[in-house]
Protein 1
Amino acid sequence: MSAAPVFSAARAVWDALRRLSGDDAYERYLGHHAHAHPDVPPLSRKAFYMSEQQRKWATINRCC
Amino acid sequence: MNKLFGIVLAIIGAFAVGGIALHRNEPINAMWLVVAGLCIYIIGYRFYAAWIQARVLSADATRATPAERLNDGRDFVPTHKWVVFGHHFAAIAGPGPLVGPTLAAQFGYLPGTIWILFGSVLGGCVQDMVVLFMSTRRDGRSLGQMARDELGPFGGFAALVGTLVIVIILIAVLALVVVNAMKGSPWATFSVFATIPIAVLIGLYVRNVRPGRVMEASIIGMVLLLIGVAGGGWIDQSPTLRSMFDYTGPQLAGFVIVYGWLAAIIPVWLLLAPRGYLSTFLKLGVIALLAIAIIVIHPDLKMPAITRFVDGTGPIFSGKVFPFVFITIACGAVSGFHALVSSGTTPKLIGSETDVALVGYGSMALESFVAIMAVIAATLLDPGVFFAINVGAGVVGADPATAVATISSWGFPVTVDQMQDLARNMGEHTLFARTGGAPSLAVGMASIFSSTFGKGLLAAWYHFALMFEAVFILTTIDAGTRVGRFMLQDFLGHFWKPMGRTSWYPSVLISSALIVAGWGYFLYIGVIDPNGGINILWPLFGIANQMLAAIALTVATGIIIKSGKLKYWWVTGLPLAWLAIVTTVAAWQKVMSPDPGLGFFSGAADMASKLANGTLPAAKAAVAPKLIFNQQLDGWLTIAFTIIVWLVIVDMLRVAIRAARGLPTLANSEAPRVVRTAAMGTGS
C-alpha cells in the first residue's frame, strides 16, 4: 500500500488553492514570459506583485 | 439519463416549493428552502443555461477566446473554468444578498424566497451569463463600451451615468450598515477598527517580507482578525478602554468618511489589496460554514410565511410587497452591478466560450443561495425580536417599554427582558433599533454557529459575524471609491486634460474627495435620520441597482436581436420587461405617493409642515431641514434615473426595429472568429 495517491491528491488540492488565491501568479508569469519574450528579462517577484495590484484594482472587481 | 435526472429534480423541487407555499399555520423547517433552492438552481443550470448557451448565444467551442488570442500572461490568461468560477464568484459576492433579504423578511419568508429563487434562475443568472458571453466575444469590453458600440453614444452615456450613481449610493448604504453595526458597541468598533492595521501589516508582509505569498499572508491575517475579535471582548470588560471605542453614529460616520478618502489615495498594496485577500478568504469560509451549520441544525423558521406588512405599512421600509420586495432583495436575485464584473475582468480569463454557463449562470446561482441563507438567518429569529432589532427608534419609540408594546401590538410578542437577555448573551449594551440588517443577521448567524460549533460563545460569534460583514463592506467601500474616482477622472479629463491623468496627484486627491463627498453626504443624512436612514437609502439603492440591470438587459436584448436571433428576444427581453415594470412602479410610488412614509416629496412636505407648526420634537426639528432637502434630492434622483432607463430602452427598440426590418444599424462589434490552435493553450 503506497502513500503516493494520497500525496498526489493533497498536492492537487494545494495547487488548486494556490491557483485560486493567486499565490502562484508569479510562477505562471515566469512560465509565460520565458516563451513569449525570451529576450527580455522578467520582472522581479516584488515588482510583478506591485504591478499586478495596480492592474487588478483599477477596474470593477468587487460588487454589492 | 440527463432527462431522468431532470425529472427527479423537478419532482423534488416542485414538492419543496409546494411545501413552502402551503405550510401556513405551522413553522416550516429551513431545509425546505435549502432543498427547493438546490433543485431549482440545478435544473436552471443544467437545462436553461445549457439551452441559452447552445441556442441563443451559439457558443462555439472551437472559437478562440480573447484570453487565448491576446494571452499576455497577466490580464488575458486562459484559465480553468472552475478557477474562473471561483474568481468571478468572489468578485460578485458582496453584502447585498445578506442585507436585502434580511430587510425584506418584514413581509415574511415567502415573498423574498420566491423572488430570490425565480428571479435569479430566470433573470439575474441569465443577465450575468449573457453579458459575460457578449463581452467575451468583444475582447472583454465593458458594458458601457458595448452599449456605445452596438446602440450608439446615448446608450454608452446612460450606462456610465448609471454606474457612477449606483456606486455612490451603494457605498453610502453599505457605510451606513457598518456605522449602525458599530454604533455604541465598543466590542464591534474595536474588532472593525483592528481590521485596518491588520490589513496594513499583511500588505507590508506580502510586499516586503515574502513578496506575492498571498496564501500564507491571508492565513496569518485570518488569525490576527480572530485575535482582534477576542481582543474586542477583552476591551469591552474594561470601563476605561471601552469608553475609547464607544462612539455615536455621526462620529463613526466621520471616521468612515475620512477613512474612505485616505484608503482611496494611498497605494493599493498598503490597504486595499491585502484587505481584498482577507475578505475573500473570510467570505468563502463563512459562506461554507453557514451552509454546513444550516444543514446540521436545520432550524424551524419562526417568521410567518406572509406578514400583515405586505399591505405597505411595514416598519422597516414602506411600500407594498409589489413592487418593493423586488427592489429590496436586489442583488440576491438580479444585480445590475454584476454586469460590470461580467464585462471587464472575467471575460479576459474565459478559456472556452462554453464555460460561460458555469461561470456566469453558476456563480449567480450560488450568490442567490447565499441570499436564501440570509432569509433563513433572519426568519429563524422570533419575529418580535427581529422587528425590535431592525425598526428605528423614530418608528417604535426610543424607550424599550414603548418599543416592545408597539411591536407586540402588531402581533409579534416580545418583552424588554427577552431583548435584554439577548443583548447580554451577544455582549451588547442594547439590541433595540440596530437598523441596517447587519446586527440582526449577526444575531441569526451567531445562534446558528453557536448551536453547531459550540454553545456559550454567542457573544464571540456575534462579533465575529459583525467583523465579517464589516470587512467586506469596507473592501467594497474602498474598491468602489477607487473605481468611482477613475470614472470621474475619465469624465473630467474631457473638460481639462490633466484631470484625466489617473496618477496625477492633485487629480487623485480632488476626484477622490468628490466621490467621498458624494457618498459621505448620503451617509451623514442616513446617520442623523431618527428613522434609521436605511428605510430611505436602501430602496433608493435597490431602484438604482435594478435599473442598472435593466440597462444591461436592454443592451443584451439589442445585441440578440441585431445578431439575427429575434425569435429569442424574450430570454433577456422578458426579464427586462419585468424589471422595467417593477422599477417604474416603485419609482412612481416613491415620487408620487401621498403617503409621507413612502413618497419622497410627500415625506418632505409632511415634515416641512410639521416643522412650521412646531409639532416636531426638538431633536428632530434640529435635523429636519436637512432631511427635507435630502428627500427632495432622492425624489429628483429617482426621476432622473427612470428617465435615463426608459430612453435607453426606447433607443434599443429603435435599433431593434431597424434590425428586424433589415435596415442598416451599427455594425456588429464582435471580434472576428479565429479558430483555436494548439499553440494558444499554453497559459494553463
Note: Chain B has a mean pLDDT of 92.
Protein 2
Amino acid sequence: MSAVDAATPSSVRPLLSIVDLRVRIAGSQILQGVSFDVPATGVTVLLGRNGVGKSTTLKAVLGLTPAGSQVTGEVLFDGVPTAGQATHHLVRQGLGYVPEDRGIFAGLTVAENLKLAERTSSSLRSEASGRAEPDYDTAYQLFPELRQRGRQRAGTLSGGQQQMLAIARVLLNPNRLLLVDEPTKGLAPRLVTEVADVVTRIAESVPILLVEQNLALVRRVGRDAVVLASGAVAYSGPIGALLDDEERTRSLLGVGHHRAAA
Amino acid sequence: MSTFLLLLLTGLGLAGLYFLVASGLSLVFGLADVLNFAHGLFLSVGAYATWWAATSLPGAGSEGFGFVLAVAFGVAAGAVVASIVELVLIRPLYKRTIAQVLVTVGLSLAGVALLQAIWGADARPFPRPAWASRVTVIGDASVPNSSLLLAVAAAVVLAGLLAFLRFTRVGLVIRAGVEDRSMVTALGIDVRKAFTLVFALGGAAAALAGILAGVQFSVVSPGQGTSLLIFGFIVVVIGGMGSITGTAWAAAAVGLLQQFVNYYASGLGDICVVALLAVVLLVRPQGLAGVAGGAHA
C-alpha cells in the first residue's frame, strides 16, 4: 500500500476531504461534525432525508453558506485547505458547482448564461487541465437544444431545459470535481433518465459529488454513497451494499425504493 | 397648451436630475446590497469640484470648452471619491449591513460638515454658461435651457448605461449579479471587482447630477446633495432596485407628477410624490421593474 502511495499519490489520495465539518446557520446547528472523502474517480452520492444538510455541505465546501453562519472543521481540495479562499478562486481551481434549483439567470438569455461562465484570464491556462477556450463542443453535444435557444430568455425555459443549461454552463470550463445538487428535482420521469445519462457520461472524465434523492438513479450512476443523518455521516461505503439492505435504507432515508425504475 | 408643454419639459428636466441621482443608487443596491446614504455626498463633490475648477483650474471656466473641462473634472472627482469610499469604507463591511448604514450615514454627515468647514455654509453662486440661464422657445413655450440640458444629459447617461450593461462583459456580470450574486461567484467570477466599478459609475452620474443641479439653481451649497438624495431613494424604491429602465420610468413619473401638481396646487407636489411611493409599495412592493420575491439569498 505504501509503495503504491509513493508512486501515484494523486490517484490514492482523496480529491476532496471533509473533516469534522460543523455549520451553524441562524442559530441552528445544521452539520454537527461531518467527515468523508470523495475519491478522484466516479460518482459519489450524498444521501439523506430532506433538511439533513446535504446542500449545506456542498455550499460549505465552496464557501457559499449565508452571511453570518459559523463554519468550522476542515475541507481539503486535493490536499489544500479551502478555508479562507474566495469562492470564485476555488471554482477557478476546478471545483464546478451546479446548485439546487439550477442557479440560472432568468433575466439573461441562454447564450448570455453560457457567456457569463466563459473565462478570459490567461492565468487559467496554468490552472486546471490547461484548456483555455470555453468548451462549447461538449456542452452542445450533450444538449443540442441549447444551441437553437441561444436568444431565448433562460427564465422561459422548462425545468428540464434549465437543468441542461446549468450543467452545460459548468462544463464550459475544465473541472477537477463537480458538485451537483439534486439535478432531477421537479423533473418528469423521462427527463430524469436523460439527466442520469448525462451524469454517467460526464463521470467518465470528471469525478462528481452528487446530491440526489432518486434512488433508482443513484443506483445506476453512483459507486460510493455517503448518508447524512442528524447532521453527521451515518453510512459511508458502496452504494450497492446500502441499497440492497432495504431495512437500513428505510431507516436512514425514510423511503423504500423500486429497483425496476430508471 | 404652452403651459402644458412648459410643465412637461421642465418636469422632464427634473426627472433627468432624479434619474442621475438614482441610477447609481439603484445599481449599487441591486448588485451589492449596499444602501449608500453617502451617495448625496457624491453630488456635492461633483458640484464643488466643478465650481473649484471653473474658478481655479487653468483652462477651465464657465463658458464653452472651459466649462466642459470643469464639468469633466467634477464628474471625475465624483467617480474617484465613490471608488475610494467603496474600497476603503464599504469593502471591509460587505457582510455587515448595519455597520454599512452607519458608515455611509456618518460619512454623509461628515462630508457635508467638511464642505461647510472649507467653503462655509452659505450657498455660493455656481459658474454657469450664459446660455444656461436663457430660454429656448419650443412651440409657444419658453423652456429654460438648464431644464433641457438636464433632460438631454439624463437621456444620454441612460442610453450609455443601457449599452454598457447590454454589450460589455462587466455589464453582463452586473446584470447577472443583480439577479443572484452568489451564483456569479460560483461561476468563478470575482464579483467584487464589479462593485467598485458600479460605485465609480454611480459616483460619476451623481456628480453630474450635482453639477447640473448647480446649473439649474445657479448656486451650490453643502447640503444640496443630501436633500436631492431623498428623491433619489424614492425613485429607486418606485422603480425597483437594480433596474436602470425601472429607475428611468420612476424618475419620469416622479418629476412630471411633482412639476404638474406644484403648478396647479402649489406645494402639494412633494406630498403627491410620497403618496405615489405609498401606492407603489402597497400595490407593487417590488417596484415597477422588480421581480416579485427578489433573487437575493
Note: Residues 1-10, 122-130, 258-262 of chain A have pLDDT under 50 and may be disordered.
